[in-house]
Amino acid sequence: MASNITARGNPGRKKIGKDGVLLFLLSTPFIACMIAFNYFPVYGWVYAFFDYKPGIPLAQTPFAGFAHFKAMFDAPDDLINALVNTLAMNFLNILLSPLAIVFAIMLNEVRSTKYKKFVQTFSTLPNFISWVLVFSLTFAFFSTEGLVNTLLAKLGSSHAVDPIGNERITWLFQAGITVWKTLGWSAIIYIAAIAGIDGELYGAAKVDGANRFRAIWHITVPGVLPTFLVLLLLSISNMLSSSFDQYFVFYNPLVAGKIEVLDYYVYRSGIKVGDYPFATAVGMFKTLVSVILLFSVNFVSKKIRGQSMI
Amino acid sequence: MNPIRLGSRTFDLVNYVLLTLFVLLCIYPFYYVFIYSISDPAKVVQGIFLLPAGFELGTYKSILTLPYIKTAFLVSTARTVVGTLLTVVCCSFFSYLLTKDRMLFRKLVYRLLVVTLYINAGLIPWYITMKMLHLDDNFLLYVLPTAVSGFNVILIKTYIEQLPAALEESAMIDGAGYLTLFWQVIFPLCKPIVATVAIFASVGQWNTWMDNYFLVHSPHLKTLQLTLYEFLSSANTFTGMDAASITRNAQNIVLTPESIKMSTTMIVTFPILLVYPFMQRYFVKGIMLGAIKG
């Protein structure tokens, strides 16, 4: 519609011409798609300011102002708990992220190309399976009738382990699973970074009498550090919305208190309970914190690296 | 042997051992589920470790004849094929159009596209919008939202821009239109980048199930991933509905909820294993996709 009007409305635009209009017309389906699925949902934020109930048009629902935001902070226990869980699990992931560097360096020290390829092939595989499958594999191992408990029983242990249902180790267990799934994949970027290091540096170090460990410490590690820093900053700015799938599939009543992340809290209060406005308000709060995180990380990045991320 | 060389040798040894252990840790879960799935369900409850207990493909046979597994397999395959094709065609044609300076509002459109990388309305607004667009209980929900992906468009656009312009110009003199130019000249040249996009899009499509969980309740549109998730979570809460009905369906083969889960897991994993060898050369490019999307 709009495009037709523009096409007819500006017939005399010489620089763009008929050709330019045609190009624009050809792209309208894609522009429509882009707006419908990226911009249109943002309009949904208005629901946070109304007492919206599904089925009743927005025009007939009373305006609520900031009541839903107030409600969120009036009874903040669930919100704080979800925030703590989100931050704790992401903090653990960030703490463990240098493991990918260690893995890349170890792989780089392997001399046999075939073996290197073998390790890389199989260590990246877990990255490509869905969290449902990860859950299924974990269940096969750690459920009460799973492999680990069967083995423990065979070895004569009367004590059964249940990491899926033990809330005291939930955070660590989830971090461990994340390492299993992502380590090989995250290492690829560091392997690429190591490959980009000037080979002459190693030669010079050898001449100067540096052994392998010194070469790793003084050449390889500083070589991958800039990459690490960028990824670190990205993961900090992303930390409130990471891996909803993961925490969703591993959610169960026994560990609910430790695994409920902000996204899950939004899902629970919105889709399960049906309180759309409140859940939208929580979602907006999450976005706000994310934006603050992004800008502070960007500020730090400017200070340290002298360049902006966005 | 001098101490430095000894240290180096020890390092190599420890290095190989640790790497091998990690690889085993990555492979073994798949192997375990595989041998469990081909074991005799009656014998396997004793516990297996390295070798299957007995040999029985009955679980696979009976699962694959279940109508809703068949449907789920078809739905998952359809969303993967259609979704990937749509992403590839839409993103590459859109990025081709965006490389043309003459295009009306080009700058504005491109800016809008870049901004999509940073905005995310959140779960509830997305949920309500999809319902408003009548995409709930609709196959299009699986394939339309991913058709135009900002990152893919930017990636392909950058690739097209570094192609020599002369190729297109010579075809243009022959009087070919944009569609012909794109399809016959540009698209074939974009193969490497399009392959990367296609392979990551297809894995993404195969693995996605949350849209299904939230918005599609029709059993005819249920994906394989969600079916597996429901198997797992129903056993989790001990309702055992699905498991019980299956045992009744299959007459002469003993089925346990465990063996059903294991076989279904293998069926869901198999297509990934199938494309995996072809994927590896696209990893480094894909990393960039992953770094931004993740």
TrEMBL record, chain A:
The keyword Metal-binding does not apply. Keywords: Cell membrane, Membrane, Transmembrane, Transmembrane helix, Transport. The keyword Cell membrane applies. The chain crosses the membrane at residues 21-40, 87-107, 128-148, 183-203, 215-236, 278-300. Pfam families: BPD_transp_1. It is a multi-pass membrane protein. InterPro entries: MetI-like, MetI-like_sf, UgpAE/MalFG_permease. GO terms for cellular component: plasma membrane. It comes from the Bacteria. Residues 83-297 form the ABC transmembrane type-1 domain. It is found in: Cell membrane. Its main location: membrane. GO terms for biological process: transmembrane transport. PANTHER family: BLL4140 PROTEIN. Belongs to the binding-protein-dependent transport system permease family. This is Sugar ABC transporter permease. It comes from Cohnella nanjingensis. The lineage of its organism: Bacteria, Bacillati, Bacillota, Bacilli, Bacillales.
TrEMBL record, chain B:
It comes from the Bacteria. Its main location: membrane. This is Carbohydrate ABC transporter permease. Keywords: Cell membrane, Membrane, Transmembrane, Transmembrane helix, Transport. GO terms for biological process: transmembrane transport. Residues 73-279 form the ABC transmembrane type-1 domain. It is a multi-pass membrane protein. InterPro entries: MetI-like, MetI-like_sf. It is found in: Cell membrane. One of its GO terms (cellular component) is plasma membrane. The chain crosses the membrane at residues 13-36, 81-99, 108-128, 140-160, 181-203, 260-279.
